[in-house]
Amino acid sequence: MEEQETRKTDDRDAGQNAKPPASRPRQKTSRLAIAAFSFGMGSHLFWVGFFAFPHRHSWINVLGSAAALLSMSGLVIGVIALVRTRKSGGGLGGRYLALAGIIAAVCFIGLGNQLPALGRPSCGNQVATRCRSNLRSIAQATQTWSLKHGDDGAYYPPSMRALYDDGVIEDTRVFTCPATGIWPTPDEIADHYECLLDIVGEKIPTRLVTDKSAVPLAWDNTADRHNGIIVVYFDQRVMWYRDDDALEQVHREVEEWLRTYEAAKQAEENPPQGR
Fold first, then answer.
1. Cα(108)–Cα(114) distance, rounded to whole angstroms?
2. Are 97 and 32 in contact (CB under 8 A)?
3. pLDDT, tens digit, for every residue of 14-59?
């Protein structure tokens, strides 16, 4: 009996004097794992940019390049983070963060093959691009005609048709807006564009077109085709105006220049008489 009581007492003493088990150190999350997760998920911001800027392809290219850089960085950093967390023997956490970052990066890289298709203009924008190219070709041909047929560059042609009749433009489709879907006959000049040359109706002295960046040369005759007006100036600069009254604005610019042109002609034809 005494032995049992002594044994119980010793057990109580041992329990009171026993040290608590050492607490396990708190596991730290790997910063590389956090970075991998951030980069991998950040690459998908491209899709946000795609829907936010569906028609601004320069933005799409910028966002696509940034997203590709983020995804590659997330993939590399994620692999490094996985290796370090495994070698830490439980001292570093964040393995699942690193895995999530790697998966997100791999998914974006897989979708990266679709970026060129996403970055291409839509059908409507392709048509507008071809229309802009047509108008720029008309401006270039006007300068070429002036050098070849206009007394060493002294005059611009009397009409847009002169560009075709004199062989400067050989394809009449240049005068056709592709948005109409109408293709003229080989010798037919479409009336899809208005042209200052046709409005003046005579050879224009080049010296009277002083500010070539401010004088419209040719433009759409309707805003319905491209949700705006595409205008080319004498300096071959092409602009797209989306205002509701864009066509009226172009007509006002032309009318203002015509007044200046007529005044300059009269001043040359009737110079002030000297005393």
1. 10
2. no
3. 555 555 555 555 667 778 878 878 877 776 666 555 555 544 444 5
Q: CA 136, CA 140: separation in Å to the nearest integer?
A: 6
Annotated domain spans of the chain: 28-119, 123-269
Residue 12 in tokens: 């109580």
What would the pLDDT profile of 219-260 be if each residue is shown by its tens digit? 998 888 888 899 999 999 999 888 778 899 999 999 999 999
Structure tokens at 114: 């679709």
